[in-house]
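Crash report, auto-generated. Payload:
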Amino acid sequence: MGRLNRRALLTRLQHLGVASRADLAKSLGMSQPTAGKIAEELLELGVLEEIDGAEPASASPRRRVKLGRPGRLLRLNRTVPRFVALQLGVSETCISTLCLGVSFSDNWQHRFKTPDSAELWTHRLQAIASRLPPASYWGVLVSVPGIVDDLAGRVLFSPNLHWTEKVDVCRLVQEVWAAPVVLVQEERALALGYQHLHPQARDFLLVDFGEGVGASLVVSGQLYDNLLPICGELGHVPVLGNERPCGCGARGCLETLVSTRGLLQSFAAAHGGLAPTWEIMIEKLAIRGVEPWLATTLDATSVVIAGALNVLGVRTVVVTGSLSDLPTAVMDHLSSAIRKGSIYARFGQIDIETAPRHRTAGLVAAGIDRLVVPMSNRDPAARGVPPSPARDRHPDHSRAKLSVPTNS
Amino acid sequence: MGRLNRRALLTRLQHLGVASRADLAKSLGMSQPTAGKIAEELLELGVLEEIDGAEPASASPRRRVKLGRPGRLLRLNRTVPRFVALQLGVSETCISTLCLGVSFSDNWQHRFKTPDSAELWTHRLQAIASRLPPASYWGVLVSVPGIVDDLAGRVLFSPNLHWTEKVDVCRLVQEVWAAPVVLVQEERALALGYQHLHPQARDFLLVDFGEGVGASLVVSGQLYDNLLPICGELGHVPVLGNERPCGCGARGCLETLVSTRGLLQSFAAAHGGLAPTWEIMIEKLAIRGVEPWLATTLDATSVVIAGALNVLGVRTVVVTGSLSDLPTAVMDHLSSAIRKGSIYARFGQIDIETAPRHRTAGLVAAGIDRLVVPMSNRDPAARGVPPSPARDRHPDHSRAKLSVPTNS
DNA sequence: CACAATACTTAATAAAGTTACGAAAGGGGA
DNA sequence: TCCCCTTTCGTAACTTTATTAAGTATTGTG
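Recovered output after restart:
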């Protein structure tokens, strides 16, 4: 069937959680036969599964007595783990096997401190792989910080984890698991994860604060993408007057102020002491409130975020990561500063909220997107997944097949 | 035929200028019959015209002697004016009638000083309309500054032309010309115009400096769009430390520094005199170079632009408007500052260029887009099942086959 | 004037979607 | 229990759109 409709159906089912063929058809506005055929195909492939368990009454409390033939409920397969998820964090690497129908909160099965070299890292992976159930996976999903060329599968630039730039991460992983590898920029995974849990959020900017600072954008329910493998790099916008050196090679990046390390450094500088731990800083801030150094930092952050909102035309900001650990006064200050700088706030409302990170959900969404129902078969290694006829995506204006249907 | 292919063909022809059916088919990667049928249809509607004049030899100098049957060349209709173009500027209103195949540079047939009220404005329009050839136009294309809800056809917010917010500009225009009205945000028109003249530019951020400051983004050859009627509002990003009041109601907007008025004001402040004219300031700057106040302003501007580049993942900046009037040292300073703040410059190249404004070309592009080959997917429930779109249950797609107001 | 090369058209075919209709699977009332 | 109602789901026939293949038209070249 058409890739587009197949994608749409799968995405919708991902959001609905559980639905019958008829539900899907209605909610997508496509005909029942079409939805039925797609569902059939995906069942065949093991992407979906049919559940006949009595529908929990609580799931549809307001629904009156159901007339007619009850639908056969479908959901994304939750019985067979299809993916290996890998979070390559600056300080920690986490691993888990995941089904397509992912559980909601992150729950890593294995984790270890990220070493400084590719060899050691692969070694640790190997050890863990041997302890995983021997299965043939559809793919390995890797969340990485920094700038990723996700088509080519290369880390181009990673200010906080430089060794990943020099090696072919995909190949390293494939030495451990012989399966297609999908690299996903950390913040993109987070945005997809947030979207998975909040299907009604169709336009938002997700900003993540942690060891680095990055953002990711969803417009009209679609992750903003670009041919250039760079996107949402809020952390490396310069702040006038700031001269701290950044891992990216420049001076004055926002990240040097609002990353966890940057905040600790500022705190220490303001109080003439050594850098405290994160917990101690939180404690002290809870007492002292938003001190001038912090206010300055937050204002700089807000300007960058407001700038992004003004340029992008988005009115919802989702903040994840370390900033939500801090006393509420901090987020309050930031929020009001963002509103002050955002032009939409002059005649509309800006929503700013904090949310936990949902990396695994995002990784699975990315994996489904790239491996299960790819728009274009840009992954030559794809095996055991739906056969999708060849078609180039952006063949540089030469032999683009813009026609939507057909081909086989 | 499919809207998508029809759009693609028209856009391509717009870029190529003149092409045969076979050229179009080849360049779009679609089959000749398809291209032929679409071309036929568009000829019928009067969108295209066939030219049989001898092809200028200079057009394809390197091309060796052409064998075979020569193609029948097509281009966008240039004989019948189909649109009225209207530039509602802060200080001046310009008017012209335009064909689909637009001439390249702006060439307004009528112009008058924009009055302070809707009544006076309509009155002037009426006077001009009576002097235009009586024809039935396909639409009136209006370039407006400020924030425009182009679907609803309302000006939501116009810091430098407040009276347009309170009136229904579309209705005003329709009282003069009984035709569909398309409102286009000024910078969007400029971006479309630039794209028309540089078809190879597929990703860029166009920043326009004038009485206001705004930007517009093209990604993958597509004007960035958003459900929120706001986009590219670079001018209203706050600059820390700046306290000048802005027409938008806030303080410290970038626009208060780099608009023509802002620059003049800063110049006057730096030299303790009255505000000079634009020409005098240029003259003096040519002698004195980039003075500290100007450097500060440019740095602030560069940070905002670099921020946009980092977030959007774009590596090309097109600057139009007043800033290119200033001595070259000014653009040089700005360019190098943008590069310094842009993360892509760490491992790639940032292109920054200045360009003249091409408003009419952009307006026509927008008009074609909205009136001649509409997507008709412009409904709030745009859920994206485009291929062979499942007709919505709510049959509000009455204008599905609208195409072009049939006359002739 | 045949022949090669290119442009365009027509006809048959394929893919993906649609509507239409009928069988399956319950619930509720006689 | 039987019958009717409602809804789900599958199959068949039709529609739209684009493709491939084959045929016709129009030029330059030997």
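Post-recovery validation: Chain A is about 35% helix and 15% strand.
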